[in-house]
Amino acid sequence: MTAPRLVQNATVLTALCAGALLAVPAPASAEGAIRPLASVAPPPAAASGASGTLDPAAAARAYLDELPPAKKARSDAYFEGGYWLQLWGFLYGSAVLLLLLGTGLSARMRDLSERVRWKAVQPAIYWFLFLGVTTLLGFPLSVYQDWWREHQYDLSNLTFGGWMLEQGKGLLVSAILGGLAVMALYAVTRRVRERWWLWGALVGMVILTFAAAIAPVAIVPLFNSPTRLADPRVVVPVLSLARANGIGAGEVWEIDASKQTTRMSANVSGLLGTERITLNDNLLNRASLPEIESVMAHEMGHYVLNHVYKGLLEFGLVILLGFWGVSLLFERLRVRYEARWRIRDISDPAGLPLVALLFSTFMFLMTPVINTIVRVAEQEADLYGLNSSGQPDGFARVALHLSEYRKMEPGPIEEAFFYDHPSGRTRILAAMRWKAEHPETWAPRSP
Ligand SMILES: [Zn+2]
C-alpha cells in the first residue's frame, strides 16, 4: 500500500526504463539444447515498401490490424482496469492512513517506539510497526492486484507460495531501506524544523541515489540471478551493437525474469558505477533477432542519454515540490486534530501517516506529470533505438507484443495522462516514419 509504495519510489527510478515487454506463455525449456531464436515474420504488405513507396500511417495501420480483436479487447481490459486500480489503491491507502491517525494507533506506535532509549533509532522502530500494519491492511488488495489479477491475464509464472516469498523479501528490503530513510529524514527534521521540506528533499535525493546505485548489485539478486550476457544466440550481434554505441561487454546482462513473469522486458539500472543494461530471458527466448536488437538499442538509448541521472534530478524536483506542499498543510491539520491524532510536531514519527497521506495525494495528482516525464524519455530512447539498430520492423513487432498487457490505441488525452511509455500505435508510427525516410533499407535497388 502507500507506505511500501513510498519506498518503491526508489525502484521507480530504476524501472524508469522498463523497456519493451511482451507476454506470451513460456515454452517448456529444452535442457542443454540451444534453441534457435524466433523466426522473423515478414512485415504486412503496406509496410513492406514492395510498391516502391511507404506511407507511414498506412504501414502503421497494417501492423495494428494484425492484432486479433479478441486479444486487443483483452489487453484493453487489463490496461483500463489498471486506471481504476490506481484510483482504488490511492483511496484504500488513504483510508488505511486515516485509520492509523483517527484511532490513535499511530500515536500508540510512537509511544511504543519511545521505549527504546536511543532517540535516533525511534523513527526506525516506528517504521517497522507502520510497515507491518499497512502491509497487513493492504494485503487483500495486494493479493488481488499483484497475484490473482496477473494470473487472470496469464502474466505471472509465480505460484501463490512463490509470490508470498517474494512479498516477504520485498518487505525485508522495505524495512531495511525504509528504516534507514526515516532515521535520516527525522534526524534532519529534528534539527531544521520548519525548513524540513528543503533538507528532507535533499536527503530524499541522496536516498534515491543510494537505492538506485545498489539496486542491480544488492536488491535484484535477492529475487533473480543476473549474469553477464552469455546467450550464444545473441551474444555476437548484441555486443557488436553495444560496442558501436560505446558500451562495454561487461555492461550487458541477462536475467531469469521468467521465474516471475511472462512479460518480455529489458531495462537500464544502476548508478555511480553499477550501471548496466539487462535483457530478460523472455525476450531472448521468444523474440526474433531484429526484435531483440531493436529493444537492446532502445535500452542503449537510455544508457547513452543518461536517463537514470536525468530522471533522478526530475524526480528530485517533484519530491521537493511535494514536500513543500506537505509542509504547507501538515501543521494546520496537526493543530486541528491534535486531541485525536496526538502528533506533537513535524519531527514526531506519529505524524508519518499524515505526511504519507499528503504526499501520496500530491503524487496521485501528479500522475500525468510523472508519466509524461518518463514517457518523454521513452520516446527519446525509441528514436535513439531506431537510429542505432535500423530495425523499424523489429521495433514494430515488439510494440505489437506489448499488446498483451498494454492498450495499443488510446485517445490522445488518455495517452498523456496514463501512459509512462508511448502507446503501441505511437511507437509503430514512429518506426514506420523512420522506415519511410530510409528507403535504402527497403526500396528495390536500381540496376
Ligand atoms: Zn525504455
3D structure, described in words:
- The chain has helices spanning 2-15, 56-64, 69-102, 105-113, 122-152, 160-192, 196-223, 235-244, 281-286, 289-304, 307-336, 338-341, 352-365, 367-389, 392-401, 412-418, 424-436, and strands spanning 227-228, 252-255, 266-269, 276-280.
- It has 447 residues and is mainly α.
- The protein has one domain (2-26, 65-437).
- A hairpin with a 6-residue loop joins strand 3 and strand 4.
Q: What fraction strand?
A: under 5%
Helix content: 55-70%
Bound molecules: zinc ion
Biggest sheet: strands side by side, in what order? Answer: 1-2-4-3
Number of discrete domains: 1
Distance between the termini: 65 Å
Total strands: 4
- Name the shape in a single word: elongated
**Unreliable stretches covering 5 or more consecutive residues:** 1-31
Backbone structural class: mainly alpha
Number of helices: 17
Average pLDDT figure: 88
Query: What is the radius of gyration computed over CA atoms, rounded to a whole number of angstroms?
Result: 24 Å
Strand count, sense and closure of the main sheet? 4 strands, mixed
H and E string: HHHHHHHEHEEEHHHHHHHHH
Short description:
This protein has one domain (2-26, 65-437). It has 17 helices and four strands.
Give me the secondary-structure topology.
Layout: H1 2-15, H2 56-64, H3 69-102, H4 105-113, H5 122-152, H6 160-192, H7 196-223, E1 227-228, H8 235-244, E2 252-255, E3 266-269, E4 276-280, H9 281-286, H10 289-304, H11 307-336, H12 338-341, H13 352-365, H14 367-389, H15 392-401, H16 412-418, H17 424-436
Parallel strand pairs: 2-4
Antiparallel strand pairs: 1-2, 3-4
Bound molecules: zinc ion.
Residues 17, 19, 298, 302, 378, 381 line the site of zinc ion.
